[in-house]
Amino acid sequence: MGWFNYYGLAVMAVIMIPNIIYAVKHKNGEITYRNKAVEIMEQIGRYGCFALMIFSIPYTYFNFWFNYALIIYLAVIGGLCFTYLIFWAICWNRNDKLKALSLSIIPSCIFLFGGIVLVSIPLIFFSVLFAVCHIYISYKNSF
């Protein structure tokens, strides 16, 4: 795949489009849970995942490690992106646990699966950090 992952860029665009639209339409989002340390770790994980889904750092990833890995990568991540968009459509005006958990678990799975299939050690690390913090914050804010 090389140092630049076009597929990862497309995935990031698909994930970010509904988030950007939602943020523009709901400028005063309710955040009830505040924990600065967890929020900072979540942001570190988030931006690490964003960057490493698009750019591969030499000697920190081993590319696809089995036959037909690219096909499986595209199928699984494509399916997860489609599911993410479906949950955005279903949960657009909701503010409950279903929305909080589905819209935090699915992107976490996308990042983690991408890291595992590409055997990208930094992406796996940042995706686990992001997943733990993002799911926790989303759950706490869903009350």
Report on the structure:
With 143 residues, the chain is mostly helical. 73% of the residues lie in helices and 0% in strands. It is built from 5 helices and no strands. It has helices at residues 6-25, 36-54, 69-91, 97-118, 121-141. Helix 1 packs across helix 2 (36-54), helix 1 (6-25) packs parallel to helix 3 and helix 2 (36-54) crosses helix 5. The longest helix is centred in the middle third of the chain and has 23 residues, at 69-91. The radius of gyration is 15 Å and the shape is globular. The relative contact order is 0.19. The mean pLDDT is 93.
Radius of gyration: 15 Å
Helix content: over 70%
Approximately how much beta-strand content do the residues carry?
A: under 5%
Counted by DSSP, the helix tally is 5
Shape: globular
Separation of termini?
Answer: 42 Å
Largest sheet report: none
Write the element-wise H/E pattern from the N-terminal end onward.
HHHHH
User: Quick check: average pLDDT?
Assistant: 93
Which structural category do the helix and sheet elements fall into?
Answer: mainly alpha
Low-confidence stretches: none
- Number of E-type strands: 0
Oligomer designation: single chain
